Amino acid sequence: MRVMFAVYAAKTHFYNMVPLAWALRAAGHDVVVATQPEIADAVTRTGLTVAAVGDEHEEVEPAEASARGDHVTSAGTWQSINAGMTETRPEALTWEYVLGAFTVGCSLHYEHLTGGRTMLDGLVEFARHWQPDLVVWDALSYAGPIAAEVTGAAHARMLFGLDYIGNMYQHYTGLLDAQPADRRDDPVTDWLTSRVTRYGAEFRPGSSRELMTGQWTIDPTPSWMRFPVELPYLPMRYVPYNGPTTVPGWINERDGRRRVCLTLGVTARENLGGDLFPIDEIVDAVAGLDVELIATLDAQQRQACGDLPANVRVVDFVPLNELLPTCDVIIHHGGFGTLGNAIVHGVRNLIVPGRYWDEIGFGELLESRSAGLYVDPYRLSGDALKSRLPVEELRDQVIRLLDDTAFAAGARTLRDEALATPSPHDIVGELERLTARHHRRQLAGTART
User: What are the backbone dihedrals phi and psi of residue 34, each rounded to the nearest 5 degrees, phi first?
Assistant: First the structure.
């Protein structure tokens, strides 16, 4: 069968998909990755085929800021996009709240994450030409399910972290059904209908749930991270892919001290305008401990840190899949790729979270499983969009993680649970069966109409 992966221009979201794309290709299926031009080179460096669609990704400003004429940073945009959708407190999820979250989401955020008109047009055009049997779409890339609906392909959503959208959409549909007929505003169906019918396709009644949450969901998060949502999930083990790299020889050279890794990931550098926190404060907080600190810093971050003691090794990039087996603790921003690497290698986590999506949620979940801790840089400032790093707390949390053996045991438990989950290779057969069940035309290998 032909499988098209659809993802917007964020390398970390694409890297999340690479092991599954490889597994399908190795099983004999045709695979192509459809994305915006700026990460086309990153796709080809994995050995996969790319279809560059649409224009380069454009920054979007929240509507309220645009009205004022204020500039909004990439980080601020992401915090605005995700602030409403990540609410989980039942008492807060009223009809007015949930309706507002999806009204804003559909009118601004999903259009942005779909890649705008040019990506959607390009993806549909390519799908009509290539005729995929299955579209696997990143959970924020709504051009994928729309192209699948227009061409009759089966489609699966692939999560990159906690399923806040699935959780919120379940509340949305339940509350919508409970409204009087004259109050059943449905901005989700309105938005999806306009996108599907734009290409001459008929909007199928009842298809909104599939288009928002997939005909099924490929879930690389551990089962204990899943919300109690009634959706068809297909569990898949997270398999690290850190990009093309060479393993440095120093990784296995140890000085006898416990090793701590510090990384704030590449997303903030490349997509969000820089780090949210002063990197020099984090380095200073840890460098004074009796540890070997491996810090991934680019030239600008390194310059901000000034002179560093001998127990600090600075590298611009290091493959976490190779480094983390040698580490006791990792300090990071809460990105799912970094967390996934840490879980499969049984490393204790200290999350210094941004508020882009699920970083604080990850921290809370890790604490509940005694596999990590988190510090909340927003608690001290009292502002949901402004951070102030609690340096002393951060240092104390590192010491706790290193000295309390319960955290090491908790991290090993998470590793063992992850390794017991089906791998990308293991789920290929189920993807074939689900595709045969959900597609609305003949599969590849049969005569096409």
Answer: -105, 120
Distance CA 79, CA 307 (A): 33
- The string of DSSP letters for 196-232 reads HHTTTPPPPTT-HHHHHH-SEEEE-S-GGG--S--S-
Q: Extract the tokens encoding 44.
A: 């080809």
Q: Could you state, in order of their start, the residue ranges of all structural domains in the chain?
A: 2-237+423-438, 249-419
Backbone phi, psi, residue 208, to 5°: -60, -40
The token pair at 19 is 């092991």
CATH superfamily ID and name for 2-237+423-438: Glycogen Phosphorylase B; (3.40.50.2000)
How far is Cα 428 from Cα 434, in angstroms, rounded to an integer? 10
- For the segment 394-428, what is each residue's pLDDT rounded down to a tens digit? 999 999 999 999 999 999 999 999 999 999 999 99
- Which helix (H) or strand (E) segment holds residue 411: the answer is helix 405-419
What digits encode the pLDDT tens for the residues 315-369? 988 999 999 999 999 999 888 999 999 999 999 999 987 766 788 889 999 999 9
Separation between Cα atoms, residue 236 and residue 434, nearest integer Å: 15
- Quote the tokens at residue 30: 């045709």
Nearest to 260 by CA among 403, 419, 415, 409: 403
Which numeric CATH code is attached to 249-419?
3.40.50.2000
In angstroms, the first-to-last Cα distance of the chain is 15
This prediction has a pTM of 0.89
Q: What is the token pair recorded at 258?
A: 């416990």
Chain centroid to CA 218: 13
Domains 2-237+423-438 and 249-419 are alike in CATH topology: yes
